[in-house]
Structures are given as C-alpha cells and as structure tokens.
Amino acid sequence: MPISKVIATVDWNVIFMIAGTMGIVGFFIESKMPSLLADQIINLVPNVKWAIIALALFAGIISAFIDNVATVLMIAPVAVTIAKKLKISPVNSVIAIAVSSNLQGAATLVGDTVSILLGGHAGLSFNDFFFLEGKPGLFWIVEAGALVATLVLVIVFRKEKDPIDKQELTKVEDYFPTVLLVGVVLLLIINSFIPGKYKPDAIEGLINGIICMTLFLIGLIRKFIKTKDTETFIEALKSIDYDTILLLAGLFIVIGGITEAGLVKEISKIFVKVSGDNVFLIYSLVVWASVLFSAFIDNIPYVATMLPVVGEISSIIGVEANLLYFGLLIGATLGGNITPIGASANITGLGILRKEGYDVSAPTFMKISVPFTLSAVVAGYLLVWLIWS
Fold it and tell me: Which topology term describes how it sits in the membrane (predicted)?
C-alpha cells in the first residue's frame, strides 16, 4: 500500500470513540456509582440464585454502554464480597457476570469495540442498532439472546437458595462521571440525525470520536481543578487501554493493505465457492465459523479482518449486507464466551478469582459458558435470519 494512504486507512473516529469512552469509564468506576447500583439490586432479591442472576443481568445492561472488561472490574468484586459474607464460592457468579457482559457488548454502538468497528465500516449510527431500515436492529436481537441465556442461568443456579442479608449501600463520591457517561450516549443519539456523518474525510465523519474525547477531557480538566494534582492526568491516561488502541490502528493499516492487494476479494470468492451461492449456507458459515474462531482468539482482530470480507461477499452474491454483518457480530461476540481465553472479560474475571485463591479450570468455566453461549447464539442466529434474510 502506498505510504500516502497509510494514515487514511486508520478509522480515527473509531480510535477516538474507544479512547474517550475508556477514559470516561475510568472516572465512572472511580466514582463508585456502579457499586451503588449493584448494592441496590442485591437488596431487592431474596436468595443467592437471584443475586447471581441479577448481577449477571446488571453486568449485561452496563456492558451495553461501556467496555466489557470495565464492567467485569466493576461488578465481579461485588459478587466476591457477597460470597465472602455468605461463606460460599464466588466462582459461578463471577463466570456468569463475565459471560453476560460479553453477550450484551454488541447491543449498542458504544457497547464493545467490535460494535464500534461495525458502525465505522458499515456507516451505522447509534440509533441504527435499535431500528434500521424499518426493522429491529442488533439491540433487540442481542436482548432476545440474553433472555434465552438468562433462562439457562435460572436452570444452572436452581440449587443456590441460601438467603441474602441487606447490603449497606456504597457511598458515591462524585456524580459528575455518571453525567458524562449519560451525556456520551445522548450526544451520540443526537449525532445520528446529523447529515454527512458517514463521510470519513469530512469533519462530520469524526463527530462521534470528538464527542467522546471532548467529554473525557472535560472530566479530566474538572478533576484536575478539584485535586490540583498533576498525578490526575497520569491516572486518567492510564485508564485508556493503549494495547487495544495500537492493535486497532495496526489492524486498520494491515486490512487496508490486504484490501489494496485484492486479498479480501479472493477470500470472499472462496466463501462463495464453498457455499455454492446458497445465501443460508453462507450466512450459517459466517455465524458458526465466527463462534469457533472467537472461542480461541480475540474477537477484535477477527471482526476487523472479516468485516470487509463479508461486505465483499454480500456484494458478490447480491445479498442484504446487514444479514452477514449482524451474523458476524452475533457469532464473534458470543463465541468468545465458550472458553476462558475467548474474551478479555473472561480472562479478567478469572484473574479476580485467582487473586481470591480460586483457580478455575476450563471444564468448570464451560459448564456455565457453553449452555449460556449456545442458547444465546442459536436465538440470535435464527432471529437475524428471520428479520434480515
């Protein structure tokens, strides 16, 4: 690829959105608002079974708007604390929180890195994840999968009936980060109605990223004014996952290179040849291959690589592109739930358990993750086909 094109292949809107959101989430966690919300939920349930399910659902809801790993870091310690008070193992509840956060990450534009990648590649706005072309968007499909998967959790934890005492409510130190996070969501919704937002070379094409970075900087400046401590900047900047940012920037360049060389088109032709132009077969291949690959490799590089491939496939056979895009995300985001190493949130949850003295084996993890994942994938797989085929 010519050097002159390298910088242009990086989707800076995606990079700025992720960096800004990560920074705001750092302030949000520090404010202890997530812990307060979790405490209030726990006080509404009668026993351990419903506490685990409530925390898993809460993790899912939170994860629809902030990073999966951040969600696990917020919610899993609450589950560990409850387990200590009841003198029971926190393993099952932390696993449930991790897989639930992975599931809901694809529900909205800002819920997960792969959703942001899809939005940037396919030109989808925040609102398009709810309704697109007069049809239910990915949000409702993911929620249907979550509902089915929750029924699986009810069965898995049916014997956990120990009663739970009321929790003392966590004291929130600062409500401003909550305002920032809500502000990000609202401004992204408003920007969905601004014309020209899909032009990558225009300033409108960077608006989402500018929104997220601006609100992060507002939070950073406010905190510095309050603390008068230069360490504020260092701590805030540490909340951004630079590995992910650099990984994505590199991937954009690599994918730009293989697209320029014609490799994406050739891979797409192989998919079409294997499936014999059968749309249902191509769709099934995209979904279940994504489940398989994402069970063992991180879904960010996989989705980043496959988005242009499925886009080219849809162009070759003349099929609705959103059918394959949504199938890709359903398979890739949920497939990471199958194994302990399939998603960063799983690794984070097991790391928290390891610090508490619990080494979780793959079979133990998969007793919960496999039925949870397969039920959610099947539900999403069928719904995407019925709505978008």
Answer: Multi-pass membrane protein
